[in-house]
Specification:
The chain has helices spanning 2-10, 13-19, 23-29, 38-50, 67-87, 106-122, 137-149, 166-175, 198-218, 241-254, 271-279, 295-304, 307-316; strands at 54-59, 91-95, 127-129, 155-160, 180-183, 234-237, 262-266, 284-290. The protein is an alpha/beta fold. It has one domain (34-293): Alpha-Beta Barrel (TIM Barrel), CATH 3.20.20.
């Protein structure tokens, strides 16, 4: 129930207008968000890099409402790629397609994404297309395939283990050489589309992990690039020790080299696990969001970890 309420609030404009004006709300959100500017984000990445951790940077924002906003969002991502190139940090970028126009005009989104991928290719960098909720799943996968068909090999996609369809999507995409981030999923989906029970989501996560590792092994175990920007085929996006242990154990069982699998986690969560996997010799990448549009992202993090709600509520009564 609490998770459903928080996911609803993440999309509620009235709640966003209310919460973003609370100083303590940003204090709470800053645990998960690197800052408001590119400079803030680059500084956070430099600190991560110094500890042997790579990153993917996300300029926060989704569901832009005008064409001008969508074009500006794409320009901001391109600026981010330029700053990564100039600073030399070990980072790539993640992009939500609704941020660059998918909900407005698919052709506009396609043009914006192609501009981003072209600049990333110029800088020998990689762009991960994030997966959003199910109204956009087919469009997202279609656009990913279209970009690959246009010769942009420097892009990957995200799949969500809570959806029934994801096993088939994963197998189909692997035939085309896809590079994945696997996550459980952070949106509220109806039971006819998604597993309602956590145990089933976890079991599907492990199955998809196995499928991706097998595919990586079959295709020659492509490794993380030397500059830390282009990830291997399977990127395991989780903070669940059981899911991470399954991935590590299975990869070791089939002989997948450590540099051919990546563990991805969120900024501000489970630094202990991040450091553990770095010490064991595995690539670790942290998803580093930044920007002024932090509210929806913050609410989804609360929905994933309801224990954080107490911190948020207790500060409300201190303000």
């Amino acid at each position: 129930m609490l998770r459903s309420i928080l996911i609803y609030l993440s999309k509620a404009a009235w709640a966003q207008r209310l919460v973003v004006d609370w100083k303590f709300a940003w204090q709470a959100a800053s645990r998960f968000v690197a800052g408001n500017t590119i400079g803030d984000a680059i500084n956070a990445v430099c600190e991560l890099n110094a500890n042997g951790i790579n990153s993917t940077l996300d300029h926060l924002g989704e569901s832009t409402s005008t064409r001008a906003e969508a074009v500006k969002a794409a320009d901001d991502v391109i600026e981010l790629l330029e700053q990564i190139n100039t600073s030399g940090v070990r980072a790539n970028v993640s992009v939500k397609l609704t941020q660059i126009g998918l909900a407005l005009d698919e052709s506009l989104c396609e043009k914006n994404l192609e501009r981003i991928l072209a600049r990333a290719r110029e800088y020998k960098n990689f762009v991960r297309i994030d997966m959003e909720d199910t109204p956009y799943t087919d469009q997202t996968l279609r656009m990913y395939r279209d970009m690959r068909g246009k010769g942009f090999q420097n892009t990957g996609v995200v799949v969500q283990s809570y959806l029934y369809r994801t096993e088939k999507d994963t197998r189909d995409l692997l035939e085309a050489g896809a590079c994945f981030r696997l996550v459980k999923g952070a949106y509220k989906e109806p039971p006819e589309l998604a597993f309602p029970k956590k145990a089933d989501v976890d079991a599907n996560f492990d199955l998809l992990t196995q499928i991706m590792i097998d595919a990586a092994k079959t295709t020659g175990s492509p490794s993380l690039s030397a500059d830390g920007r282009t990830p291997p085929i399977p990127a395991i996006g989780s903070h669940d020790p059981k899911r991470l242990d399954f991935a590590r154990t299975y990869a070791e069982k089939v002989g997948l080299p450590k540099q051919a699998i990546e563990f991805q986690m969120l900024f501000g969560i489970r630094r202990d696990l991040q450091e553990q996997y770095v010490k064991e010799g595995y690539p670790v990448r942290i998803y580093v969001p930044y920007g002024t549009h932090w509210y929806p992202y913050f609410m989804r993090r609360l929905a994933e970890r309801p224990a954080n709600v107490w911190f948020f509520v207790s500060n409300f009564f201190r303000k």
